[in-house]
Structure formats: structure tokens, C-alpha cells
Write a structure and sequence with these properties.
Blueprint: H1 2-54, H2 58-103, H3 118-124, H4 146-149, H5 171-180, H6 187-198, H7 203-212, H8 217-226, E1 238-243, H9 246-250, H10 253-264, E2 278-283, E3 295-297, E4 300-302, H11 307-319, H12 334-338, E5 350-354, H13 357-361, H14 364-377, E6 383-387, E7 399-403, E8 406-410, H15 415-425, H16 431-447, H17 463-466, H18 485-490, H19 495-503, H20 506-516, H21 528-537, E9 544-549, H22 558-565, H23 567-581, E10 585-590, H24 595-610, E11 626-631, H25 641-648, E12 672-676, H26 677-689, H27 691-695, E13 705-712, E14 718-723, H28 728-735, E15 745-750, E16 756-759, H29 769-774, E17 783-788, H30 793-807, H31 813-830, H32 838-852, H33 856-860, H34 863-871, H35 873-881, E18 896-898, H36 907-911, H37 937-941, E19 947-949
Parallel strand pairs: 1-2, 5-6, 9-10, 9-12, 10-11, 13-17
Antiparallel strand pairs: 1-3, 3-4, 5-7, 7-8, 13-14, 15-16, 15-17, 18-19
């Protein structure tokens, strides 16, 4: 602590002292300059006059000599003063710049400074620098660059967090119970609200809920310990979440987590650093797979991470003046606020900025703020519209300019590009504004070389990505404002609901769905019309409909993108389904990890209710329907429909045997229809365009289109919608643009942890329910993660088994114990301790678990293992018999070595966290195998590709 305090004192005073020295040096130089300009001319004139007299008067010569000597000495002093003052000024200015840019204390870290100075420093210094981007950092610097060498910060950059004391204030509990109710089914919303307020679940608050509500202590204990998002002990000031979804896993998420633990000095068995500043958590999937690997710090998302850059990212976060608003929040700047046009005039240009999760994670908020500012400078001559995900996540942030009968798309836009893009498409409304902008353009070209680069360098041709796609579900995504019902109506929104309520009977609606051939898009593809019909014919006046938005598959983000970009469409589809089955109440169950989706849904539901699309007498008919939003609490098993129902009832999300099916006895024992987001989003299109049009797409048994999230080792990752029947090869090569870095295409993972692995040699397999099932995989919700030749299939199987074992509810023995035994075998094989018979045991256990497990999670959990054994058995045999990992991935079976092309730059030694590489400048380095942890940071840091694993 003492060392930290002195470090903060030095950092606090260093810049201020350097500034003072710079000012003193400037005054020093200025004083000599003033003296030379005012006093020296008079002395020089006097000496010149004496020189003229000395030509004829010897006495004057005697007087002149000392004056000449004095003049010479004064000149020497001035030259020395100028040189010294200039050197001091340059050095002190450089120190001040370095301090201001890299060493300046963050908020609350100023130490040893008089209290009276702090308001001035807080307003002038801490907020002087431009805030860091709101969410995603730029991709890590190229290996070998100076930035890469300095990416790992010093070990002591975490400052202690203040300790909060005092008794727990339980006043918030009363307000929470009043807002959420005190019935047993409200236990999850109550716990979520308590954790949001206290940042964990204090025992006193839980006891207060039991005393004041109708909820038992056993129910609270059972629910709060089942769902992974609930915390029972205090957390640090900031929470770092490391995504361990499939795309992040194959991109090195585990090493990022290890490096953060080392940098934060988190002890074994704990998840919070000793200072209480940071808590580190694992997250199954954040839903930004196209930016993998991904971490979040509080609400900020950082993509394209690496173990080499992770420490620097946290350091940058700490230095941010206001981390909660860093990078802009999309609000207009001062120019935009002060230069709004006096009279609104319909602008001729529409500017669309993608504000979905991937866009925001790439810096879209900062881009939007810059767009608002620039448009305001031009007199408001364009409309800026926030839209959802367009699907081209690899090009985020995306800006589309629509006007003049066409559109232009810009990708990977940076704040410096905004002015050039606006000036190319938006014409100033007045002559003074045009003159002013012309002057600004000329000035920018004089002082900034980048101003000469045209905006065209950011233009994107979407044709290669979209040529083979067919948008049904995604037809509005990236085009409409998600929160604008008027925008949705302009795209034929609500027309399908009007048609159903006013012109079609419930049986006719179900008939249209049956004719379309629509099958459920969330799992095995059960016929949608059959499920609707069974629910409608179930006895009883009370029925429910549920939209399953609990998209838990790691590597999948389709539902998240649709809910963020087009929430009214999902609501319309759900209301139509409710009308068809005779339900008067429904729920949308959405992942809590999707805050933008949840916010958009809540806003859309409020707007729909206010406009007569929900509630009593919808659209002037006799149909009534009430809709609620519920957020999950972090349990993958709740994607299974009976487990989801248990969660809505305020219980542990544990599947129950079927039959009875939810359509017969579901929520609170009533007939319940459950469809996922994509299924419901298809319904309005089918009603508007006709069942025949939908059935004309796809294959004989798999009609329509399917939305996939394309991630992993692919050049063009993002969200795609393709007709059923397209091949895997077409998706990977034609839409995805092939494998990154020219590596070899090895396999594709379909269906997440319930799916399977299809090798590149079978890439001509068609995407439909039957063909994927024949491969031992399933379509699932639609995650497609592409692998290259550096991915180990045994490790992939281990990853999925670890995930399903962690997420197993534990209700049935085969899933709880069987997956654990399979995981133990896989761990042993990856550690180089496999033995003969292990592969056969994996196959036997997998087949038994598939047959005997209670729910879909257990029944499909062995799929990744069985398919990798089926198609990549030689890799398993190499691990077991040769103690070798062919992909050079499993740590226990590889060694790192430095090749002869090493230049001795020492970057690998600087990056190595274990000190396994001694720095020997200009000499070939060596790796100490005894110290090496196989983290791979040396490979990332090497600019010459001189480090090899094998």
C-alpha cells in the first residue's frame, strides 16, 4: 500500500511539475528575447557610434574595448540561455505529453494534491482527453509492433477500491416486493432486482423477502443457487466477464482468462482481486461471436481480444475518465444541440447507423454522435436513423447513406471518416454554411494527411455476402428503426395481424401455417402447425403462448439480432399465434445477457399496447391479449421448453418427463404453446406473402429459409439467412469468403453443444433437417462455427462436454454422471494419459446417454463427441497411442520452440508471462520448457513467425 501511495503521488505531481518547468522555461526564453528586442538595439547603436569615433580618437579606443568584450560575453550568455531554455522546454513538454497520454492518474487516484486544486484538475485535466470507445477496443496491434510490446501493463496498475461499511439498507426490498409482487412465481424477478440494487444477494435481504413475502426460504435457496447469474458474495467495483462461447473458445478465450487472473493477482479459489477492484466471471456466450474473442467490463464490450492485449485493455478502462459513458452514448454533441434547424424540413438523405450489439461493440455509439454533430453543422440536411444488425458483423460499424434513388454502404467506419462521408453525400442548406465547410475542408487538408484520403476507401460491396441469401426473417433488419412502429408499418408491418383478426378464423390461420410447411426453428424441426393445432384443441378456457428467446447455444446470436432489430415483428407473430390457439396471455422469455434486446422488447410492448395492438379489443376486434417480458437468469437448460416453464413459475429450471406435452399441460398446468423467436418471425411473412411462397423455398421436407450465425475462422462472419437446401460449402466459401489467413478448412460445428461436427470432406452436405440428422448432427437454433487446421477435434469435444456437464440440471443420472465420466476420459486423453479402450468407452457411454436421458440436453449432449470420433478418429488415436496432438493445440502434448529466423527483437521475452524466454537482444532466443505454460503469447508477439508449437 505504501508503495502504491508513493507511486500515485509521483504520478500526480510528475505532469504538474513538468508543466511548471515548461512554463518557467518559456518565461526564461521570453525574457531574453524581450531583452534582445528592447535593450540590445540601443547598446548596439551606442557601440557603433563609438566605433566611428575610435577611428580618429585614441581615447575612445580604450573605452570601446571593454564594451566590445561585454557585448561578446552577453552574446555568449544569450546563446547559452536559448540553448538551455529550449532543451528544458522540449524535455519538460515531452514529459508532460507522456504523462498526459499514458501516466495521468485516473478519477480518484490523485494523491498528495491540495484539495483546493482538485475541482480545477477534475474539469481541466481528467476530462481533457477524448473518451475511449464505448465498447469494443480496436483489434490488437500487429505482432511485433511497439504497441504490442507495451500491451502488457505493469503489475501494480490496479488501485485499491474503497471499502463500503455500515449496516445494509433494506428499504429497497420493500420497493422491490411492491413492484414485483410477493408470490412464489415472482421469485426470479425479485432476486434479479435485489442483485441489481446490491450487486449481489445479501443474506439479510433474502431473509427480509422471506419475512415480508409469500416465498419460502427453501425456494429462495433452491432458485438462487441453481441459476448461474446469481451471486451470494460481494463483488469488485467492476466485473470482467470472459466469453467462453464456441467462437471465443477456438480463438483463445481460455488464455485471456488466465492472463487476466495473473494480471489482477486473483488467488486460486477466488474470483475477485485482493484490492476489491475487479471480479472475473466466465460467461457461456455474450452473443457477439463475430468479434471473438470477447470480454465485457461492466456494460462495455471489447472484441478481437488476445492474451497479449487483455491487460492493456483493463488498464485503458481504468484510465477512462468516465467508463460508463466512454466512447459516447449516441447523444448529440454541443454542435448538434446548438445548430438544430429552426423549421423542420424533410431531409433528402437518410443515414442509417447499425446500433445492434455487434455495432455498439465496434464503436457505433461514437460514430452516431459524430454523425449527429456533422449533420448539425450542415443545417440538419439529413435524417440519422438507428437501425439493427444488417448481418455484416465483420464490417461493423456500418453506415448506409440512402438518397437520390440509391444507397451507399460504408464499413469499419472510424470517427475520422464521418466528416468525409457526410460531405460526400449531404449538401449544406445555406450559402454561408457551404463557405464555412469549404474553409474547414481546406484547413483539414493542411493539418491532417488523412483528410486527403477519400471516403470511398470505406465503401463496402455487400453483393458477395448477400448474393446467395434470401431474407424472410431478416427482411427489415438494418432498414427500420427497431423502436418505431411507423417504420415497421411502412414495411407492411401489422398487415398480417389485421388479416388474421378481421378476415381469417383461427383454423384458417393454422391451415396457412400447415400449407407453408413451417417447422420449428429452435431445435429438431417439429411441424409448427401440428403444435398449434394440438394447443388449440386442448380443453380449458385458459391457455398461454410463450416466445422462447433463451438462446443459450454458445456460438449462436440469431434470436438476439432479430429481437434487437425487429421486435414488433416477433410481437406480431406471437399475437397471431395466440389468436390461432385461443390464448389471452403470453410471455417472451429472453436472455438477461442480451440487454439491448430486452430493452427493445419492453419499449416495443409498451408502444404496441398504447397503439391498440395489445390489451383489450385489439385492432377493434373482440380479441384480447396481454403480453409480459421475462428475463432468464443464466441456465442453458431453460432453452428446453419444460425447463423454461419451470423457470417462469419461479422454480429451478429442471425439465420434466413428457408426456404430457406443454400443449396439453404447460404453464401452471394449462395448455401452452412455445415457439422460438425465428419461428414466430416467419409467421407474418407467411400470412402476407402466402403459404405457397414460403413453401416454394427450400427442400421437399425442409421448407423456407434458415437464419444462421456464421462465426469462427471465417473471413466474413455475421448473420445470414439462406434457403433450406444450400450446402455447407456454399456458406463457408461463397458467403463466408473462405478461411482466415488462407488456412485449410477443417470442419464446421452445427447446432451448438447439442449438434455435431461435419468435416470439410462432407461440405457438400445440404442444410436441411434430415441430412444434418443423418450426419449425426442437428440444425439446432442455427449456430455455425467454422474450424481450421489448427483446431483440435478432441479439444472441441472436451469443450462441449465440459459445457453440457456444467449446465446439466442434475435431475437424471445418465446426464449428470454419464457426461462427467465422458469428460474425465476426454480430459485424460488431452493430457496425454489416454489408454487403449478410451475411445470405445466414449462411444458406449455416449450411446447410452442418448437413449436414457430425460430431456433434449442430455439426449444430444454426446453428439459432438460421437461425430468427432466418427469423422476424426485418427486424431483421437494420435492422442492416445502416440501422445501427440496433430493440431498442435493440447498443451500437455506440445512444445514451443524458436526457429532460426529469430532476429532477437526480444518481443517474445517481453510478452512471456512465465519468464520462460530470456531476453538476448540480436541473438536467437530459446524457450525454457520447464517454465513454459504454453499460453501462446510468444507466438502472438513474434513479428517474424519464428515461434512454432508442435
Amino acid at each position: 500500500m505504501k508503495k502504491d501511495r508513493w507511486t500515485l503521488i509521483i504520478r500526480s505531481w510528475l505532469g504538474l511539475a513538468a508543466a511548471a518547468v515548461a512554463v518557467a522555461a518559456s518565461v526564461w526564453i521570453l525574457s531574453f528575447y524581450i531583452h534582445a528586442r528592447i535593450v540590445d538595439p540601443g547598446n548596439a547603436a551606442r557601440i557603433e557610434a563609438l566605433k566611428e569615433k575610435a577611428k580618429t580618437d585614441p581615447e575612445v579606443q580604450e573605452i570601446l574595448q571593454p564594451d566590445l568584450e561585454k557585448q561578446y560575453q552577453d552574446l555568449k550568455k544569450r546563446r547559452f540561455a536559448y540553448d538551455l531554455g529550449g532543451a528544458v522546454l522540449l524535455i519538460s513538454a515531452g514529459v508532460f505529453f507522456a504523462w498526459f497520454r499514458w501516466l495521468r492518474p485516473g478519477p480518484g487516484d490523485w494523491t498528495g494534491i491540495p484539495a483546493g486544486w482538485m475541482p480545477y484538475l477534475a474539469s481541466r485535466v481528467d476530462t481533457a482527453a477524448r473518451p475511449l470507445p464505448a465498447v469494443l477496443r480496436k483489434p490488437p496491434p500487429e505482432s511485433g509492433s511497439a504497441a504490442a510490446a507495451s500491451a502488457a501493463p505493469a503489475e501494480d496498475w490496479v488501485s485499491p477500491a474503497p471499502v463500503e461499511g455500515g449496516a445494509l439498507d433494506l428499504g429497497a426490498v420493500d420497493a422491490i416486493l411492491e413492484a414485483e409482487g410477493n408470490s412464489p412465481e415472482a421469485v426470479i424477478p425479485i432476486l434479479q432486482a435485489i442483485q441489481s440494487h446490491y450487486r449481489y444477494l445479501p443474506d439479510q435481504a433474502l431473509r427480509a423477502v422471506c419475512q415480508k413475502g409469500g416465498i419460502s426460504a427453501s425456494q429462495i435457496a433452491g432458485v438462487s443457487t441453481f441459476y448461474t447469474q446469481f451471486r451470494h458474495k460481494p463483488v469488485g467495483k467492476h466485473i470482467i466477464r470472459v466469453c467462453e462461447g464456441t467462437a471465443c473458445h477456438v480463438s483463445g478465450a481460455a488464455e485471456i482468462g488466465n492472463e487476466l487472473r495473473r494480471r489482477l493477482k486473483i488467488p486460486d479459489g477466488s474470483d475477485t482481486d485482493p484490492s476489491g477492484q475487479f471480479t472475473l466471471e466466465r460467461v457461456a456466450c455474450i452473443g457477439s461471436c463475430s468479434l471473438a474473442p470477447v470480454i465485457t467490463i461492466d456494460e462495455n464490450i471489447y472484441g478481437h481480444m488476445s492474451a497479449l492485449s487483455a491487460g492493456g485493455t483493463v488498464r485503458d478502462f481504468l484510465r477512462s475518465a468516465d467508463s460508463s459513458a466512454s466512447g459516447g452514448d449516441g447523444k448529440p454533441g454541443k454542435r448538434a444541440q446548438s445548430r438544430q434547424p429552426k423549421e423542420p424540413v424533410p431531409p433528402p438523405v437518410e443515414i442509417r447507423i447499425g446500433m445492434g450489439s455487434c455495432g455498439v461493440a465496434s464503436g457505433a455509439r461514437e460514430i452516431r454522435a459524430a454523425l449527429l454533430d456533422q449533420v448539425a453543422l450542415l443545417g440538419g440536411a439529413a435524417e440519422i436513423k438507428s437501425v439493427g444488425c444488417r448481418g455484416m458483423c465483420h464490417h461493423e460499424p456500418l453506415v448506409e447513406i440512402v438518397g437520390g434513388g440509391g444507397s451507399t454502404l460504408y464499413g469499419n467506419v472510424q470517427p475520422a471518416d464521418v466528416r468525409k462521408i457526410i460531405r460526400e453525400h449531404v449538401r449544406p442548406r445555406s450559402l454561408p454554411t457551404r463557405i464555412h465547410q469549404g474553409f474547414r475542408d481546406a484547413r483539414a487538408r493542411l493539418v491532417d494527411d488523412s483528410a486527403w484520403k477519400p471516403a470511398a476507401q470505406r465503401r463496402v460491396d455487400a453483393t458477395p455476402y448477400t448474393r446467395k441469401q434470401k431474407h424472410v426473417v431478416l427482411e427489415n433488419c438494418g432498414i427500420i428503426d427497431p423502436l418505431s412502429l411507423e417504420d415497421y408499418r411502412r414495411r407492411d408491418g401489422i398487415r398480417a395481424l389485421q388479416e388474421c383478426l378481421k378476415n381469417l378464423s383461427p383454423e384458417e390461420v393454422i391451415g396457412k401455417i400447415r400449407m407453408s410447411g413451417l417447422r420449428g426453428r429452435g431445435g429438431a424441426g417439429f411441424p409448427t402447425a401440428v403444435k398449434w393445432d394440438v394447443t388449440r384443441r386442448a380443453p380449458g378456457p385458459v391457455k398461454y403462448v410463450i416466445c422462447n428467446g433463451d438462446e443459450g447455444d454458445p456460438g449462436a446470436f440469431m434470436d438476439r439480432a432479430v429481437l434487437e432489430a425487429d421486435p414488433f415483428r416477433v410481437i406480431e407473430g406471437l399475437v397471431i399465434a395466440a389468436y390461432a390457439v385461443g390464448a389471452s396471455e403470453g410471455f417472451i422469455y429472453v436472455r438477461r445477457e442480451y440487454p439491448i434486446a430486452a430493452f427493445h422488447l419492453r419499449e416495443a410492448v409498451q408502444t404496441a399496447a398504447a397503439r391498440g395492438l395489445l390489451g383489450k379489443n385489439i385492432l377493434g376486434t373482440s380479441f384480447d391479449f396481454k403480453l409480459h417480458i421475462r428475463e432468464g437468469a443464466g441456465a442453458f437448460v431453460c432453452g428446453e421448453e419444460t425447463a423454461l416453464i419451470q423457470s417462469l413459475e419461479g422454480k429451478r429450471g429442471m425439465p420434466r418427463p413428457k408426456p404430457p406435452y406443454p400443449a396439453q399441460s404447460g404453464l401452471w398446468g394449462k395448455p401452452t404453446l412455445i415457439n422460438n423467436v425465428e419461428t414466430l418471425a416467419c409467421v407474418p411473412w407467411i400470412v402476407r406473402r402466402g403459404a405457397e411462397a414460403f413453401a416454394a423455398l427450400g427442400t421437399e421436407k425442409s421448407k423456407g429459409t434458415k437464419v444462421f450465425s456464421l462465426a469462427g475462422k471465417i473471413n466474413r462472419g455475421g448473420l445470414i439467412e439462406v434457403p433450406m437446401g444450400i450446402t455447407i460449402r456454399e456458406i463457408v466459401e461463397d458467403i463466408g469468403g473462405g478461411i482466415k489467413g488462407g488456412r485449410a478448412f477443417k470442419a464446421v460445428l452445427t447446432g451448438g453443444p447439442s449438434g455435431g461436427c461435419i468435416p470439410a470432406r462432407l461440405a457438400d452436405t445440404r442444410i436441411d433437417f434430415e441430412e444434418l440428422t443423418a450426419m449425426g448432427a442437428i440444425m439446432g437454433s442455427g449456430g455455425l462455427v467454422v474450424l481450421d487446421d489448427r483446431d483440435c477435434m478432441v479439444d472441441i469435444a472436451r469443450y462441449f462436454l465440459r459445457f453440457t456437464q456444467d449446465e446439466s440440471c442434475g435431475k437424471c443420472t445418465f446426464c449428470r454422471i454419464g457426461t462427467k465420466r465422458m469428460l474425465e476420459i476426454l480430459e485424460r486423453i488431452c493430457e496425454g494419459q489416454g489408454k487403449e479402450g478410451d475411445i470405445e468407452n466414449l462411444e458406449s457411454l455416449g450411446n447410452e446417454i442418448k437413449k436414457a436421458s430425460l430431456c433434449g440436453l442430455g439426449q444430444t449432449a454426446p453428439n459432438p463427441v460421437l461425430t468427432t470420433i466418427r469423422f476424426f478418429r485418427e486424431e483421437y488415436e494420435a492422442h492416445v497411442r502416440e501422445r501427440r496432438c496433430p493440431a498442435a493445440h493440447c498443451k500437455a502434448l506440445i512444445r514451443f520452440r524458436i526457429l532460426d529466423n529469430c532476429t532477437g527483437c526480444t518481443l517474445c521475452a517481453q510478452a512471456c508471462p512465465a519468464g520462460a524466454i530470456a531476453a538476448r537482444p540480436y541473438e536467437k532466443h530459446e524457450v525454457d520448457d520447464a517454465l513454459c505454460t504454453r499460453c501462446g503469447m510468444c507466438i502472438e508477439a513474434c513479428p517474424e513467425n519464428a515461434v512454432e508449437a508442435g
